[in-house]
Design brief:
CATH class of the largest domain: Alpha Beta
Radius of gyration: 21 Å
CATH architecture of the largest domain: 3-Layer(aba) Sandwich
Order of helices and strands: HHEHHEHEHEHEHEHEEHHHEHEEEH
Structural class: alpha/beta
Strand order of the largest sheet: 2-8-7-6-5-3-4
Bound molecules: pyridoxal-5'-phosphate
Helix content: 25-40%
């Protein structure tokens, strides 16, 4: 390998730290010689995919010798009907990770800036870094609420995109309707606001700001959704964005023609039809959340309020060490340090028996971690 080749690599790429995903179950089984591992690390839906989606996948399997519909016509029709926006206002992709990248490629270049909350989802930063743009991170307040005033102050003439995540990953807080209204009324006209609503369907609070309402009122917003969470199709990869038609048209120019695969498109259409699965998942999530909260309270810990399918709490201990000890017991969670929350753990809401297993293993490893301090 000649030195010159490496010199030709775009320098901004060297600053990209590879994304640290939740550990897969298979890795933990192999690394620790375990047979029974539970994963509460990637905010997935523990109920599994909808039966309707599974059936649709089975029927579509014989057609995978054909390319998928590059325009995702049927899926966009279904989404258009669901959300009351035109199909030309919708773009689908290989998960939200893909749509974040496409948005970044559309709007960013060297000298451009994005404003992001911190801590929040790391792929916003990745998209900016990929395009050699600058990320301006605005800390959440001490109680993990958005600091809208500080976010507005962080906007400059070079700001192209401003991300909001609601419910926010990893903190679980959400944006209220009145707060978003007041904020959007003050965002300068040159800034496109991306509302990442990956956990939208889990929200039960009535004053939650639905991004789509603001899109319909003509604000400069893009609403980002995914089938990976409530719709339980993370492994198939399907995300979509809704925005003003002209903006969607621009983003569409950066898209690979077949960026949403055939099985994903088919399964997503079926999953949208399965209202019972959504309702059951939402109910299961709230029950699991209450179980986790009550269990942690008994152990003397306080789970932060969350509208997502995950929540964080402060352990007051070395989160990386706890994470390792939990792994050894076959329980995968997320440690706070890489998420910008040292001392915290983020736990996805699993089945009730998985929540119970987390609680008992956590109790055990905490006492050994404390003994070893
Ligand atoms: C806030 C947020 N946005 C986007 C994503 C990515 O979703 P997808 O699986 O559609 O790429 C995640 C995944 O964890 C997330 O937490």
């Amino acid at each position: 390998m000649s030195e010159e080749i490496l010199n030709n690599v775009r320098k901004n790429l060297f600053a990209i730290k590879p994304y640290q995903p939740g550990k897969p179950i298979s890795d933990v089984k192999r690394d620790y010689g375990l047979s029974d591992v539970i994963k509460l690390g990637s905010n997935e839906n523990p109920l599994g995919p909808s039966k309707l989606a599974q059936q649709a996948i089975a029927e579509a399997l014989q057609g995978v010798n054909r390319y998928p519909d590059p325009g995702a016509f049927s899926l966009k029709e279904a989404l258009s009907k669901k959300h009351g926006v035109e199909t030309k206002q919708i773009l689908v992709g290989n998960g939200s990770d893909d749509t974040i990248k496409l948005i970044s490629e559309t709007f960013l270049q060297q000298g451009a800036e994005i404003v992001v909350p911190s801590p929040s989802f790391s792929q916003y930063w990745f998209g900016a870094q990929l395009m050699d743009a600058t990320t301006v991170a605005v800390p959440l307040t001490a109680d993990f609420e958005y600091d809208f005033e500080a976010m507005l102050s962080a906007v400059t003439a070079s700001t192209k995109l401003l991300y909001l995540c609601s419910p926010n990953n990893p903190t679980g807080n959400y944006i209220r309707q009145a707060d978003l209204q007041a904020f959007l009324d003050r965002v300068p006209a040159h800034v496109l606001v991306i509302l990442d609503e990956a956990y939208n369907e889990y929200v039960v609070e009535n004053d939650y700001a639905q991004g789509i309402d603001f899109l319909k009122q003509g604000y400069n917003v893009i609403v980002m959704r995914t089938f990976s969470k409530m719709y339980a199709l993370a492994g198939l990869r399907l995300g979509y964005v809704m925005g003003p038609a002209e903006v969607i048209d621009a983003i569409n120019r950066t898209r690979e023609p077949f960026n949403a695969n055939l099985l994903a498109q088919t399964a997503a259409i079926a999953a949208l039809d399965d209202a019972d699965h959504v309702e059951a998942s939402r109910k299961q999530n709230r029950e699991g959340m209450q179980r986790l909260q009550a269990g942690l309270e008994k152990l003397g810990y306080q789970l932060l309020p969350s509208q997502g399918n995950f929540a964080i709490f402060n352990t007051g201990l070395d989160d990386q060490k706890l994470f390792d000890l939990l792994l050894r017991e076959g329980v995968i969670v997320r440690s706070g340090t890489p998420l910008g929350l040292p001392g915290y753990l983020r736990v996805s809401i699993g089945l009730l028996e998985e929540v119970d297993r987390f609680l008992s293993v956590f109790e055990k490893v905490v006492s050994s971690a404390v003994r070893n301090v």
